[in-house]
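Troubleshooting entry. Yesterday's outputs looked truncated, so today I'm pasting the complete records for two proteins to confirm everything comes through intact. If either block looks cut off, that's the bug. Protein one:
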Amino acid sequence: MTARADEARHPFSVRDMIAMERLASPQPSPDGGRVVFTRRVYDAEANKNFTNLWIVPIDGGEPRRLTSARASDTAPRWSPDGRTIAFVSDRGGSSQVWTIDTAGGEARQVTDFPVDVDNVQWSPEGARLAFSAEVYPDCPDLSCTAKRDKEKSDNPVKARVFDRLMIRHWDAWYEGKRNHIFVWPVKGGTPVDVMKGADADSPTKPFGGQEEFAWSPDGKSIAFTSKMTKNEAWSTDNNIYLASADGSGYRCLTCANEATDTQPAFSPDGRTIAYLAMTRPGFEADRQRLMTYDLPSGKSRALTETWDRSAESVAWSADGKRLFVTAEESARKKIFAVDAAGGKVGILVGDHYNTELAVTSRGRLVYTQDSLVSPAEIASCRIDGTEARALTRVNAARLQAAEMSRPEEFWFKGAGDDRVHAWILKPAGFQEGRKYPVAFLVHGGPQGSWEDHFHYRWNPQAYAGAGYVVIAINFHGSTGFGQAFTDAIRKNWGGAPYEDLMKGLDHAIATYPFIDSDRMGALGASYGGYMINWIAGHTDRFKCLVSHDGEFDTRTSFYTTEELWFPEWENGGTPWDPGTTYERWSPALSVANWKTPMLVIHGARDFRLPETEGFSVFTALQRRGIPSKLLYFPDENHWVLKAKNSILWHDTVIDWLDRWLKKP
């Protein structure tokens, strides 16, 4: 880089983060020579995101724009002959299936259903499309759903009546509709609901997608993931079902396992379905084993029972001899190959954060790769992990303009004398001999981790760019360090994790002379917000705190959250069961010790930890006379997703840190 270019650089901030183009959904062509992907751009003037399709040669070359509408074009899928790409677009006013010739030209709308559709997939012979749509299970057709929706909209009475849980989930109220999978002939006709009558979702809500259903190679069946249980709010019993593509029925393949089974993928010969399975009912962060289900015999087999990592995706090699998965390991998300016969696991891509894995017919893998210093780009390697290369560099110029911190790692002895991992980032413009204030980040989950990953909500570079030393610790409960380490947080929320955080901070202060231990602020969201509330009652070593969507009272939040399996597992039962930890680890019981100034943030559409949790924290702070501020988003859920809201969030948080850690 030239001296002039270096002088023109500025410290990374939220505005750089918002400006990054977001690449996703790489799909290789049937001949393996090209990759279609989505590219999302934020238009600040319109205050909207627009997503279009692009194509890049797998052997290298400039990406070529395929669609250009000011709309959301997503979920691209190649037709089996490679001549057409189907995708979902809202350019016509509702989300419908469109197609475009891979050589270019104008896109053509191919469905005009009375309801929105999503997650389109071609049948193997290319004559049909599968897609998902949200419908009323008792409706005989899509028109019935649309008619009922209109009647509800026109009715001045908006009251809801419920007779079971869930009444709402994540950020949406339950309106009686379910995601179902449909099959539709491309030449026209009536869509067939392959889940007809099922009071259940596929893909599952709120985050399931195309990875949760798959065509059989002969086109006669569709395997899908669904939770068909009456105790939906306190069960994790997702299962794999096999449906006839003509809508004549479906059957459960994995109901013998009462824990999660998900992400079915047919082998090339159609005799085997690979999928992911947990073993402990009610535990959402159990280790996911790679499984195979033999269709002729009806028997399942665990391929990775002895591998202490949790697989997160499934893709077959063209010859059916290997499977490819991603899994978290030591603060990275890596790509592994698994022998389909014996289950032997080998690492293929060990650096950075790799997702959305697909296999080409040319013996290559395609995936997205990002890191702590770069947003996701499309990448590829051979199926043995060699010849890895980036296929895109869409954000190169933006990255060149922003000064980012080089992440460093350290390990220390934490709770139980276990080795605990952490990241540290120096502030932008770092100068030897100076001391800097600290932004101490606590991750959520709690079964999550700080990884070599470009995060769009909690990006350590945003704090390094603002002049802070950033410390991020992967405490007990974090993922990617073995299942026992993940399990250690159960019934121990304020114990080992808090000990790790304090010991890790002590280690950093003793190791890095540029840390100013008199100017430190701690901040976190979700479980991280819980921990900030816990920290407030157990130490005054921080000059300020930031609690985003954090849990205030574990005793009462059980009754207001929606996924009851989570607090039941984490606390060892329901609040009325003996031997649980709801009372032991509740931050509300330590309010008398609170002294530290705190910024509280909450979203009105957060049904995981409803807004009353944040209001309670702010009320306690105000009543105790502690300097405090509440930032409230009426239009956000557990996450802050809208661009201008994100800018306000970051500006408010950085200003709060600056007020207590920089200003005299």
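Protein two, checking that the full record survives here as well:
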Amino acid sequence: MAGAPTIFRICVAVLAAGSASLFALQSSPTVSAERVAFDAWVDGQAKSALDTRRARVAALKTRENIEARQQEVRAGIADMLGVLPGSNGPLDAIVTRTTPRDGYRIEHLVFQSLPGFKVTALVYVPDGPGPFPAVLGTAGHANEGKASPTYQNVWVSLARRGFVVLAYDPFGQGERVEYLDPVKGGSRVGIGTREHSMTGQQLLLSGRTLGAYMVQDMRRALDYLESRTDVDRTRLAVAGNSGGGTQAALLGAVEPRLAAVVISCYMTSWADMWNVPGPQDAEQILPGFVGRGFDFADFAVAAAPRGVLVSSAIKDFFPIAGSRAASEELAPVFAALEAPDRLARVENDATHGWSQPLREGAYRALGTWLGRPGLHPTELPVVAEADAALRVTPTGQLATSLGTRTVRAINADHARALASSRAPVTEAKLRVLAGLSTAATEPRVVLRAGNPWSPAGERLLLEVEPGVRVQARLRRPASAAVSFTLLADERGATSRTELIERLVSEGQTLLAIDVRGTGDLAPAAGVSGYSGAYQFAARAWLLGTSVVAWQTHDLLHGLAVLRVEAGAAAARGPSVRAQGQTVPAALLAAQFDRPAALTLEDGLVSYLDFASADTHDGLTLAVLPGVLQTTDLPELMARVAPVPVRLLSPRTAAGAAITATTLPAHLGTPVPANVTITH
């Protein structure tokens, strides 16, 4: 990288070669062999996809094949994001007030990203005539959003160096709290990552992601910058840290107007990230991202040959080894595109955060790439302004001032539009949704121990994937069985002894199966502030599947085993009883292997109801990405007719009871003739 400043040299001390070891699992006396095998199976899928990708990228030697890869990456990321259709509607931009400062001024701005969906922002404008290069500043997960003191250092320092800066509030932060508590103020669910996780799971149901709405906000911010006469529209950049680094990476991959991208405290590799700290905020989860052969470095591949600064903290929870490996991988790509000086790297020996050395690296990179070289990189002191002094709205919140729509309200409308327009589902589409082949399910019992007529029952291990075994418990009545039932439960079916014994006393033979996500294969404790259920499900989403798909597969194996156990004695075939988050999988499994009856306890009745809810609780494992583009639970209930479907104590997404009176509203359709409700 001849001629580049020293800070831009890529010095990689720790490379990707050691990354694969992070997938290795150590057996523990407290962890079952089945759990170790399952975790290794999940990790192995990620490792296989990442290894294949790494080999493909290493083989990119010519401009032609690199540009082909870029097209693949850009299209893939846009597809996985669920990027919203382009909007060229009115911005309705309003500067609510202007604050003069020494050498620059701050314009307090609000504009529309979508009709009725407003964005609060601060525009830092240098003194002088311009036109100036402009930087879109993306805040990380600070409660104050754009007004965070750390980020003010960047916005002010760039303005002092002759850049226009538009710093905006990501929704869920700053003046854009979407779950505002009208009495206490603040967020009802938690500002930042908690709001994002709440809405993000609902977005997945309709085939979109949180990142898609962030990209929409950022694109409209660029539209606004381009509308200004004091901005040089050929010199636009995006710069952000942490969650803002994620936003910068996403925008850089899909937005051709940018000349430069600064990604701080985000770039790493999934090989290093997969287990610890694991999946993070909702905008960082693109369904299928790992399974389809993508990694963090691909954001920069898509942006090349425009300027990309990889800015990393050595002690970050985004592993530094992955960041260095990404830079090493990217160097020959930029070189082949004849732009080696457009890839830069800066590190600081610190924990997560946009520390001053990393900020100064951004000033130097942006100065070089946006036509302001030679600027002194040292950051002068910035006195952070109080949050109230930087408000755009009178009350400090759009919700109580100018009014705005929310992402979840927009998504609810989108979900309802899907429900009213989609064609009747076919078995082929359901197989894609559940990740099933057309081959018949062959029962495979690899262990049997105990007596099915004893209270403890007979323990079975079912191999549902090569090397993946789930626990099951077979319990028979003393006399001839009058029926056969497959039992699944989000709490672990094999532990539901009281229910099992009650059903056995009624003459039923029970096969209780701990499908993946329950029992011994339930989510482990989460790390880095995220729940175990979220990180468990997010790994499945990243692989391009879901816990619901896994559970559907497991239930089909359970049904196959139970049919063998029943033999000629089961005149009607087995029934299925599912509880909680296993309910969607039971309905999906019933599409391919019709049971005699379905009992669905304490579960969802509609994904549309989930997507339209104000809040939801305890449904993360039931999230099925893209389901509402294909079907919904009421349609699946009706499709199994005349099989009776009994809804036992059904619940809303927030956990409230659904009654016979309210059931049609929550289904979103008339109650199918084969469906009854009891409590």
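Both blocks look complete. Sanity check on protein two: Residues 1-22, 24-28 have pLDDT under 50 and may be disordered.
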